[in-house]
Structures are given as structure tokens and as C-alpha cells.
Design a protein that fits this description.
Blueprint lengths: L1 E3 L10 E3 L17 E7 L8 E5 L5 H5 L10 E6 L2 E6 L1 H13 L5 E6 L7 E3 L5 E5 L9 E7 L7 E7 L2 E8 L11 E5 L9 H6 L4 E4 L13 H8 L6 E3 L8 H16 L5 E5 L11 E4 L2 E4 L4 E2 L1 H14 L14 E5 L4 H9 L2 E2 L1 E3 L5 E3 L20 H22 L7 H21 L10 E5 L6 E5 L17
Parallel strand pairs: 1-2, 3-7, 3-15, 15-16, 16-17, 17-21
Antiparallel strand pairs: 4-7, 5-6, 8-9, 9-13, 10-11, 10-14, 11-12, 18-19, 18-20, 22-23, 24-25
Helix pairs in contact: 2-6, 8-9
């Protein structure tokens, strides 16, 4: 649906166009919360091409081709005449490490996967089946199929599918058509075996046959296409967009930053991007969170800035509207990579950088839950640099847009009674935010719903005061 911001009342498409201002003063959660759109690109060599929906309890090995809780991401060993050579795919390592961190906080991840390579396969004339990996990519070469006579029942065979060294499926069959595909392999009966449903080959098998699938390749030339990505983003519901894990200076981060501005201002999609700090970049926008440093985990694992950005993406997506992440603890972190002194910490905060610091007790925390907006104006004051404030204002805008589209556009007459109905709906919603502590005091007089210049136009003016968490204590002790 149409939406976004407006300069004057001249929009062509039906929709909700909402401006948020925070002028200098004297003196419920939408369906996108908890969801991260994670741009992974072509690093997997496995999985569905497009969006893979993940949650913390997903079967990552089946969906991604890796075990996020056990694998050494991007590390492979290759046998040579001089012994085994260990290779590290830094891009794959970075992306999967960041994804692992994202899932520590996110409720759902929409993983954007590019997988257009060739599919691994296995054929043998002694068998009535052709086997293919379920997805294209070189990871399919890690699949092995074993077919052996069943010693417990003559005339049947046991077909076992392995992914790496793990048996992931086992079936006992007496005809070719009884064998079903798995989450790792697609199976088809060969033309030669169709006449008798493979019975001759099955009963004639005296020795087992075990072979890996081969020929799977990953198309590493297929990078993220900007237009295709943007088209996909506009059709999905999510709270945070990130390409965490990519190198700090990778062009994808600037692409996502520009895309978020477009989504927020032209499509009315109130999302934020989380990106690593890049030398020379100054985004200065409330929809973009810039992570400035990394952390060391208690097991010694060092997470770079871009990998730690994955954690921020996850927790920012799911934090309740009435909570801040200022001084929130990074779980199992023991130190910060790139510690800053007091002066440099202040400079980083003033430049709109979200950073990790170490409390006096050694705990690693988020210093302040801020976004990159730092050049304040009369219409956009410093409150908009706080992510808790932005979450509330974004929820008001998004919820109002969604409600107007679902329940009012084309359904309710634009007269006094209709506008009163819309106002009552908004008052009820806003009072709910007050009750939860997301908003300060609110009165029905703080919102007006009036007719616009055109017969089909409604003009809403709303004054709200988002609540924030305690962050600074000034105390005087007199003796």
C-alpha cells in the first residue's frame, strides 16, 4: 500500500502519509517487531534461492547447510601432497558469525539467500534411482547416499542419506517408487527401472553402494542485485535490515542505508538499518544505527564490528517499545575490541555511534541505545537520536498506517461520524501505549482528526511525549 511522508496534501494514491516532528520544547507491538531482514548473499552454496525464514530453533543444517551452533564457519580442510591445508572463507565466516549473533536476540530472521549454482547429483546403473541435492551449490557435494541389501528382510534395501558424517535419513524399500525424497535429496526413478518399479535391480543388489553426490557448484559471481533486493524488501514485514558480517567498507551497507531512507520516507515502512561503522561515512539519520566496535566473548572468540552488528540487529528488532537497550549486557562477552577512553567515547556518541563499553564490574554493555542522527534542528531535536523514542514513534506511524489501510480506506465515510470513529480508534491505541509505559501522559485533546481540502482527505494532528529510560543521575550530597 502507499504511504510515507508528505510536504503538501497532493498525494495521488490512497494511503496513510505521516510526518513525525520533534520540535524543541520548553520545559502495542506491530507484526514486524522481532523480525530481522538479513542480507546473506551467495555465501552458503545451499538453500532456497530468495528468502529463508529462520528462528532460533530452526534446523539450520537442513536450511542453510551449516550447524550454527557447532560449525567452524567458512573453514575447510583440503588434502594435498604436503598434508592438509586449512582454508578460511572470510566472507562466509563473517556472515554466518553475524547471523549466529543476530539469532541471540531476533525472534525471526528473513535470510536473503542467493543460490544459483549447479546441483550435485549421483547416478549408478546398478540402482533404480537418480539422486540430486535438494538445493544447488557446492554444499550439496557433502551429501552421501548409501544403498545396501537389508539383511533382515530379503528383497529389500536400506537407503541411507548422510550430510557430512551424520546420517540424516534412512528408508527401507522393496520397490523404486517407495523411496521418498528427503530434505537433503530429490529422488527420481530411472527410465530403465520404471517397467518393473526397480524390483530387478533391488533384488539383484548383492553388495552395498555408497557414493557422494558430485558436481555441485556455487555461483560466486551472483552478487546482491539492488533492484531485486529492494523489490523484495517492499513486500516483507520486518523491523531491522542488516548485512552484518560483510566487510565494514562493503558497498552493501550504503545500499541498505539508502534503501531504508526510501522505505521510511516514500513507502511508509518504518524500519531501521544496522550497519558497521565505516571510515568517512556519516549517515546522520534516525533510521540507521551505526555500530562502532566489536567484542570478545568469554571463550576467547573475537567478534569484529560487523559481526557484533548482527547482535545489535537482533536485539534492536525485538526489544519492547517500553524498554531501552542502554547499558544492556552483551551475553557472554568479556571485553571490547577497540576500547575508548572517556573523551573518545563522548566523541563517538556525539557522532551518532552505538558502541560497546566495559562497566566497572567488567560487564560488557551497550553504552547508549542511539542511532546515527546527531545534527539536531528545531523540528528534529536530540530525542530522535534515541532508539527507544524512534521505536515508539515508528510504531505509532506504522500502526496508524496499517489500521487506516485495513479498516478505513474505502470503508468508512469521510464525515464527522467517520472521523470520530478513527479518532476513537487512535485514542484507544495511544492509551494502551501510555499504560505500557511507552508514552507519557496522553489526553484525547492531543489528537485532532479533521477534513482535508479534498472530499476523501483526512488530516490528523497528534501530539505525544514518548517516555525514555533513566540514563543520567545528577545528585548533590550536602554534609
Amino acid at each position: 500500500m502507499a504511504g510515507g511522508t508528505f510536504i503538501k496534501h497532493d498525494k495521488r494514491r490512497p494511503g496513510a502519509y505521516i510526518n513525525v516532528k520533534a520540535p524543541n520544547r520548553k520545559g502495542g507491538v506491530t507484526g514486524s517487531r522481532g523480525v530481522v531482514f538479513f542480507v546473506g548473499g551467495n555465501v552458503l552454496g545451499w538453500g532456497q534461492n530468495g528468502i529463508i525464514t529462520l528462528s532460533p530453533d530452526s534446523d539450520f543444517k537442513q536450511l542453510l547447510g551449516v550447524d550454527l551452533d557447532a560449525d567452524l564457519f567458512g573453514v575447510t580442510s583440503e588434502a594435498t601432497a604436503d598434508g592438509a591445508v586449512v582454508k578460511i572463507d572470510e566472507k562466509k565466516k563473517g556472515v554466518l558469525t553475524a547471523l549466529h549473533e543476530t539469532l541471540k536476540g531476533a525472534l525471526k530472521v528473513l535470510y536473503y539467500n542467493i543460490n544459483t549454482g549447479k546441483t550435485a547429483e549421483f547416478k549408478d546403473d546398478k540402482l533404480p534411482w537418480d539422486f540430486k541435492a535438494f538445493y544447488p551449490g557446492e554444499t550439496g557435494n557433502q551429501i552421501t547416499v548409501g544403498v545396501s541389501p537389508n539383511p533382515a528382510k530379503a528383497g529389500t534395501v536400506i537407503v541411507t542419506t548422510y550430510f557430512g558424517t551424520e546420517a540424516v535419513n534412512k528408508q527401507t524399500v522393496k520397490t523404486a517408487s517407495q523411496l521418498k525424497g528427503t530434505e537433503y535429496t530429490a529422488v527420481s526413478v530411472t527410465d530403465a527401472a520404471k517397467a518393473d518399479d526397480g524390483k530387478a535391480l533391488i533384488t539383484g543388489l548383492t553388495n552395498g553402494i555408497t557414493s557422494p553426490l558430485a558436481g555441485g557448484t556455487t555461483d560466486t559471481t551472483s552478487e546482491v542485485d539492488a533492484d531485486a533486493l529492494i523489490n523484495t524488501l517492499e513486500t516483507q514485514q520486518f523491523a531491522i535490515l542488516t548485512a552484518a558480517g560483510y566487510a565494514d567498507d562493503a558497498p552493501i551497507h550504503a545500499l541498505l542505508a539508502n534503501t531504508v531512507k526510501r522505505l521510511r520516507e516514500e513507502a511508509g515502512q518504518k524500519v531501521q538499518a544496522v550497519i558497521p561503522d565505516t571510515v568517512g561515512a556519516d549517515y546522520d539519520y534516525e533510521g540507521i544505527i551505526v555500530v562502532a566496535n566489536g567484542v570478545v566473548l568469554s571463550d576467547g572468540t573475537q567478534l569484529s564490528t560487523t559481526e557484533a552488528a548482527g547482535y545489535i540487529a537482533g536485539v534492536e528488532s525485538a526489544v519492547p517499545l517500553n524498554q531501552s537497550l542502554t547499558y544492556a549486557v552483551y551475553p557472554n562477552a568479556s571485553d571490547v575490541i577497540g576500547r575508548l577512553n572517556n573523551e573518545d567515547t563522548i566523541l563517538a556518541l556525539n557522532a551518532g555511534k552505538l558502541l560497546f563499553t566495559v562497566r566497572n564490574d567488567g560487564t560488557v554493555v551497550i553504552e547508549q541505545d542511539i542511532n546515527s542522527f546527531h545534527n539536531f534542528t528545531q523540528d528534529k531535536r536530540s530525542d530522535l537520536a534515541k532508539n527507544r523514542v524512534i521505536r515508539v514513534l515508528d510504531d505509532i506511524a506504522q500502526n496508524t498506517k496499517d489500521t487506516f489501510e485495513k479498516a478505513f480506506i474505502g470503508k468508512i465515510t469521510n464525515n464527522g461520524a467517520g472521523r470520530d470513529l478513527f479518532k476513537s480508534n487512535r485514542v484507544e491505541y495511544l492509551n494502551g501505549l501510555v499504560t505500557s509505559g511507552a508514552l507519557g501522559a496522553f489526553d484525547a485533546a492531543d489528537i485532532s482528526v479533521d477534513p482535508g481540502e479534498d472530499l476523501d482527505t483526512v488530516v490528523v494532528n497528534l501530539a505525544v511525549t514518548p517516555a525514555d529510560a533513566m540514563e543520567k543521575l545528577y545528585m548533590t550530597v550536602t554534609v
